[in-house]
What does this fold into?
Amino acid sequence: MSLDIIQRICTKSGCYATNVRQKALPPAQQSSDYRTFYGQERPLLILHSLGCARDSADVQAEQWDNPNGQAIAHACVDARDGKTRQTLPWDFRGWHAGQAGNNVAIGVEMAESLSIRYIGRTDRFEILDRNKARANCETAYNGAVELFAYLCQMFGVDPLAKREINGKLFPEVLGHCEWNRIRGVSGHTDPEHYWTQLGMPYTMDTFRQAVKAKLEQEQADGPIYRIQVGAFRNRAYAEAYLARVQEHFPDAYIKSSDE
Ligand SMILES: [Zn+2]
It folds into this structure.
């Protein structure tokens, strides 16, 4: 597995601080949005593309790591090296897809090429260097496939499965564009607007197929090695121990045997 996840948790972001506050409360006292996200069986996985000419996930993380920021995803895939910068622990509720989306989904952004220039505040762009832009796009796409295969394994998501939410059927791995399209909400055409305008042979369907193929390949490659640091009957002891582990490894999380 050539997956690389670089920890760049945005502990200065308002979103991170809000999650820390919410997680310290008993579930009954958490705000319903956060309780919904923490309490779900497994998250949807939403793929985004930044919608601005920024190829560096480090620069994006810098933008997000801000107490006054209004948006932050769980990770950004770099368009130069294809590696993931993880910006929130996976079990924190992010701010990337509106209230309803944030309640049910982990969000991942792909950085875009510097060789494009957006036209005003639209989703249209000019292409300054077509070969370079397409190479950056391919790098981010392949990095996102690796990351989503990893997330599917971690959370037990089948990339080709669908789930009903409020009477509508959503792919468990989906693009921000699909999240809005299925709900009948306009705006947010990412990531397909980026692929289409660059003439790439990518759609959310090819993405899901690629994630599925990657998962099957990894299963054929052999076992995954997980790290465990404790086991408790009492949830409160587990929470207290987790808080200590998270001082060093912020994306550590609890997995219950009845989940
Ligand atoms: Zn988006």
Q: What stands out?
A: The first strand starts at residue 5 and ends at 7.
